[in-house]
Amino acid sequence: MANMKSAIKRIRVNEKSRVANQTVKSNMRTNIKRVESLISENNVEEAQAALKVAVKKIDKAVQKGVIHKNNGTRQKARLTKKVNELGA
Protein backbone atom coordinates (compact mmCIF):
# COMPACT_ATOMS: atom_id res chain seq x y z
CA MET A 1 0.00 0.00 0.00
CA ALA A 2 1.15 3.52 -0.77
CA ASN A 3 2.56 5.60 2.06
CA MET A 4 3.19 8.96 0.44
CA LYS A 5 0.37 11.47 0.21
CA SER A 6 0.83 11.95 -3.55
CA ALA A 7 0.82 8.19 -4.17
CA ILE A 8 -2.40 7.78 -2.17
CA LYS A 9 -4.03 10.56 -4.20
CA ARG A 10 -2.76 8.99 -7.43
CA ILE A 11 -4.48 5.71 -6.50
CA ARG A 12 -7.77 7.58 -5.91
CA VAL A 13 -7.52 9.49 -9.19
CA ASN A 14 -6.59 6.36 -11.17
CA GLU A 15 -9.57 4.48 -9.79
CA LYS A 16 -11.92 7.33 -10.73
CA SER A 17 -10.46 7.44 -14.26
CA ARG A 18 -10.66 3.66 -14.61
CA VAL A 19 -14.38 3.65 -13.83
CA ALA A 20 -15.07 6.52 -16.24
CA ASN A 21 -13.02 4.89 -19.01
CA GLN A 22 -14.72 1.55 -18.40
CA THR A 23 -18.13 3.16 -18.99
CA VAL A 24 -17.07 4.78 -22.26
CA LYS A 25 -15.36 1.60 -23.52
CA SER A 26 -18.31 -0.61 -22.56
CA ASN A 27 -20.76 1.68 -24.34
CA MET A 28 -18.55 1.68 -27.43
CA ARG A 29 -18.26 -2.12 -27.48
CA THR A 30 -22.03 -2.53 -27.06
CA ASN A 31 -22.69 -0.37 -30.12
CA ILE A 32 -20.07 -2.23 -32.16
CA LYS A 33 -21.68 -5.56 -31.25
CA ARG A 34 -25.09 -4.17 -32.20
CA VAL A 35 -23.80 -3.29 -35.69
CA GLU A 36 -22.19 -6.71 -36.10
CA SER A 37 -25.38 -8.51 -35.05
CA LEU A 38 -27.41 -6.50 -37.58
CA ILE A 39 -24.85 -7.38 -40.26
CA SER A 40 -25.18 -11.07 -39.45
CA GLU A 41 -28.98 -10.71 -39.78
CA ASN A 42 -28.52 -9.02 -43.22
CA ASN A 43 -30.46 -5.97 -42.03
CA VAL A 44 -28.94 -3.22 -44.20
CA GLU A 45 -30.95 -0.14 -43.18
CA GLU A 46 -30.70 -0.71 -39.44
CA ALA A 47 -27.02 -1.66 -39.73
CA GLN A 48 -26.28 1.65 -41.44
CA ALA A 49 -28.16 3.57 -38.76
CA ALA A 50 -26.39 1.65 -35.98
CA LEU A 51 -23.05 2.25 -37.71
CA LYS A 52 -23.52 6.02 -37.37
CA VAL A 53 -24.10 5.64 -33.63
CA ALA A 54 -21.14 3.27 -33.26
CA VAL A 55 -18.83 5.66 -35.12
CA LYS A 56 -19.87 8.47 -32.77
CA LYS A 57 -19.13 6.29 -29.74
CA ILE A 58 -15.72 5.28 -31.14
CA ASP A 59 -14.87 8.92 -31.89
CA LYS A 60 -15.88 9.91 -28.36
CA ALA A 61 -13.66 7.18 -26.89
CA VAL A 62 -10.73 8.43 -28.99
CA GLN A 63 -11.44 12.03 -27.98
CA LYS A 64 -11.42 11.10 -24.28
CA GLY A 65 -8.20 9.14 -24.68
CA VAL A 66 -9.77 5.81 -23.78
CA ILE A 67 -8.51 4.17 -26.97
CA HIS A 68 -5.73 5.18 -29.37
CA LYS A 69 -6.58 7.17 -32.50
CA ASN A 70 -5.35 4.43 -34.85
CA ASN A 71 -7.36 1.80 -32.97
CA GLY A 72 -10.51 3.88 -33.40
CA THR A 73 -9.82 4.46 -37.08
CA ARG A 74 -9.21 0.74 -37.65
CA GLN A 75 -12.46 -0.24 -35.92
CA LYS A 76 -14.48 2.31 -37.90
CA ALA A 77 -12.91 1.17 -41.18
CA ARG A 78 -13.63 -2.50 -40.53
CA LEU A 79 -17.24 -1.87 -39.49
CA THR A 80 -17.86 0.42 -42.45
CA LYS A 81 -16.37 -2.13 -44.83
CA LYS A 82 -18.66 -4.87 -43.47
CA VAL A 83 -21.76 -2.67 -43.78
CA ASN A 84 -20.81 -1.58 -47.32
CA GLU A 85 -20.27 -5.21 -48.41
CA LEU A 86 -23.70 -6.05 -47.00
CA GLY A 87 -25.36 -3.27 -49.00
CA ALA A 88 -23.60 -4.15 -52.27
From TrEMBL:
Q: Name one Pfam family in it.
A: Ribosomal_S20p
Keywords from UniProt, A to Z, are: Ribonucleoprotein, Ribosomal protein, RNA-binding, rRNA-binding
Protein's name according to its UniProt entry: Small ribosomal subunit protein bS20
Family according to the record: Belongs to the bacterial ribosomal protein bS20 family.
HAMAP family in the record: Ribosomal_bS20 (MF_00500)
Supply one GO CC term from the record: ribosome
State the function annotated in the UniProt record.
Binds directly to 16S ribosomal RNA.
Q: From which source organism is this entry?
A: Amphibacillus indicireducens
Check the record and name the Gene3D superfamilies matching this protein: Ribosomal protein S20
The record's SUPFAM superfamilies line, in alphabetical order, gives: Ribosomal protein S20
